[in-house]
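Progress narrative, Year 2. Work on Efflux RND transporter periplasmic adaptor subunit from Spirosoma sordidisoli advanced from sequence curation to structure prediction during this period.
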Amino acid sequence: MDRALPKRFWTQQRLLLSGGSVLILGLLAYTLFFADRRSKLNVEKDKITVSAVTTGPFEDFIAVTGVVMPLKTIRLDAIEGGYVTDKLVEGGTQVQKGQVLLKLENQNLKLSFLQSETEANRLVNDLQNTRQRLQIERFTLRKTLADLDAQIEQAKDAYDRQVKLFKDKVVSEEDYLRAKRTYERLSGQRKIEIESQKYQEDNARIQIKQLEETLARTQRNVALWQQTLDNLVVKAPVTGQLSSIDVEVGSNINRGQNIGQIDDLNGFKMRVGVDEHYISRVFAGLNGSFEFNGKTHALTISRVYPEVKSGRFEVDMIFPNGAPAGIKRGQSSPIQLELGKAAQATLLPVGGFFSDTGGNWVYVVDKSGKRATKRPITLGRKNPEYYEVLEGLQPSEQVITSSYENFGDNEVLEF
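Result:
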């Protein structure tokens, strides 16, 4: 006889439903509390560059390019203006000091010179005429004084006789007084004549001195005008190579205009362009080096030009041990410019990542080699090969150093 069995609560259907619910809740809990929710991007490892962080001496230098220039370059400026009548030397020619390079013509300068010369000749004639006139006046004054002295002698003799005769009552008092007045008048006139001659002599000396001074000034002006005319013949101020001369026959040149330059080939230097980022760290005395003909040659900064153009400034570097044989003007060469002494540091190879992150973070590859995660770092100095790592990385860690341009804002890269 059949009997009714009690119903079971945990049926197979209920067990399946409960198990599914627990599994879903577990997955939700894992996703909520334990799952990695960071943004990810799959990348191909063979298309990126991975570099190892190392330790070693950090050489504080930058790579720059220098151009060989003469140690001294003399600008050739026109002292006076004019039009070119003759061009005797072309650019690139060796010239000697004093060698004529150009001949100019300036009619206004010639006219001014002739006027000044004419004025000087006129003053010379005036001075000669004045001296002759004054000499003649001296003779006339001496003759007048001699005649006056003779008259005084005669008047004195007559006066002495009248005195004697008047005492003897031979002549009248009127004759005596007349002789006395004549003698006294002539004596007084002689004093006046002497004072007049002295005044005229002093005045003559002043006139001659003034004329001589005016003549001297005019003659100096003539000499200056002559020198100005001489400057119309352009000569080489030093011995060297006339590297350029930018004029042609018939062209007009203004006073002070640059018409070329002469290079002193007794020595060379390097003119180097440096990024303005380093302007506070570059100064005279810093050393550098470059390769030429298979040898390393030393360089030293001798002068810094602080003016910044197009994000760069320039420095002059000299060869402390002498310029290498065979070097030529205009050659360019890469130079290693030292900014400081080498020091032990953590090093990260230079790469394209810096332009995308500014050196503030990098992707660090984990030990499995299957993923890389974003990590903040701090970088210090830079040379052409390495960055100096201050914080955030340890030696032997692997870092993606190629460009991050295609990675977006993803925090994890999976290979």
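The chain has four helices and 22 strands. The domain at 40-58+343-414 is CATH 2.40.420.20 (conserved putative lor/sdh protein from methanococcus maripaludis s2 fold).
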